[in-house]
């Protein structure tokens, strides 16, 4: 990894760029010095332009490829392109880590455009700032804005209908890993979440013990499994109770899911539960603080809350 953070790649890119420009200029110079000579005497009635010579390629018996020098206008444009590239590299980044005289970066441009956009739309969010979550949820204009924010920032993981996917929670039900109050939703969107379930295979015991425990976990939500093996796995559930609780009802303080409601974030079935015990899971939701403004997070939080609290 040290090679990727050293100065080597900066020099490599810079030298490669300069050599490419020099090679283009050299190629143009060499080609402009070339003189063409006729490959053969002109036949009676042939186009005089053939006197400059041909490449020797003939198609359709009489169609010959000329060997004319580059047109002056084309060579001029090529020279302008080379000069432009040199001027560009003086003022803008392109030579490795050299930032150019203007100090332009895509990050700076993004931040400037974001600040300008935030300032332009600030009045839109300001009129909603004093409203509670319930009031925002009942406001069609606020929910229209919230829907656009959700589609642009959340739908990639939770789906456009907010019903989630494998590893991404359904936001339209009342099953919440960290709590579904307006305050908790706002906290989740702002700070993000990192829900980690470590591999528990070593703590549980043998492969048979893991299978028995998986059957017991399925039995907590009446989701099938072998009753005999579930009974054998009951005592092994003590290693899970620290997070999921002694009854398996979960713990929103640490994001441990409820195992008794039949809702499976990473897939349903004995094989899926065994895989979870053996390999664990790591669910990451990135923080939106810094990406979205406070006004945007306020409306987005209300929109997510209203998805599972819609009026009949």
UniProtKB/TrEMBL annotation:
Cofactor binding mode and count: Binds 2 heme C groups per subunit.
Cellular localization per UniProt: Cell inner membrane
Residue intervals of the Cytochrome c domain: 141-221, 228-308
Record SUPFAM superfamilies: Cytochrome c (SSF46626)
Keyword Oxidoreductase in record: yes
Transmembrane parts of this sequence: 12-31, 73-92
Record's keyword terms, sorted: Cell inner membrane, Cell membrane, Electron transport, Heme, Hydrogen ion transport, Ion transport, Iron, Membrane, Metal-binding, Oxidoreductase, Repeat, Respiratory chain, Transmembrane, Transmembrane helix, Transport
Main localization of the protein described in the UniProt heading: membrane
Pathways per UniProt: Energy metabolism; oxidative phosphorylation
Cofactor: heme c
Subunit architecture: Component of the cbb3-type cytochrome c oxidase.
Free-text function comment from the UniProt entry: C-type cytochrome. Part of the cbb3-type cytochrome c oxidase complex.
Alphabetized PANTHER family for the sequence: CBB3-TYPE CYTOCHROME C OXIDASE SUBUNIT FIXP
Family under the similarity heading: Belongs to the CcoP / FixP family.
NCBIfam families: ccoP
Protein name in UniProt: Cbb3-type cytochrome c oxidase subunit
């Amino acid at each position: 990894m040290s090679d990727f953070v050293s100065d080597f790649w900066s020099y490599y890119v810079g030298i490669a760029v300069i050599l490419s420009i020099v090679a283009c200029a050299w190629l143009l110079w060499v080609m402009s010095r070339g003189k063409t000579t006729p490959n053969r005497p002109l036949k009676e009635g042939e186009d005089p332009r053939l006197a400059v010579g041909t490449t020797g390629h003939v198609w359709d018996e009489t169609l010959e490829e000329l060997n004319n020098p580059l047109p002056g206008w084309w060579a001029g444009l090529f020279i302008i392109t080379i000069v432009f590239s040199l001027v560009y590299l003086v003022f803008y980044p392109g030579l490795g880590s050299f930032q150019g005289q203007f100090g332009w970066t895509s990050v700076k441009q993004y931040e400037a455009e974001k600040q300008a956009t935030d300032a332009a739309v600030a009045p839109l969010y300001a009129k909603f700032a004093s409203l509670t979550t319930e009031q925002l949820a009942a406001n069609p204009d606020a929910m229209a804005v919230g829907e656009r924010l959700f589609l642009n920032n959340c739908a990639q993981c939770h789906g456009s209908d907010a019903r989630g996917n494998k590893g991404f929670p359904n936001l339209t039900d009342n099953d919440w890993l960290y709590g579904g109050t307006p305050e908790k939703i706002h906290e989740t969107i702002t700070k993000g979440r990192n829900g980690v379930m470590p591999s528990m295979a070593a703590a549980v015991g043998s492969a048979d013990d893991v299978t028995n425990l998986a059957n017991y976990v399925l039995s907590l939500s009446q989701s099938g499994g072998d009753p005999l093996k579930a009974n054998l796995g009951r005592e092994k559930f003590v290693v899970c109770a620290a997070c999921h609780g002694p009854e398996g009802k979960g713990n929103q303080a640490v994001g441990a899911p409820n195992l008794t409601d039949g809702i499976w974030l990473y897939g349903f079935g004995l094989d899926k539960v065994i895989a979870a015990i053996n390999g664990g899971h790591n669910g990451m939701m990135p923080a939106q603080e810094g990406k979205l403004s406070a006004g945007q997070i306020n409306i987005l939080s209300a929109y997510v809350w209203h998805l599972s609290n819609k009026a009949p």
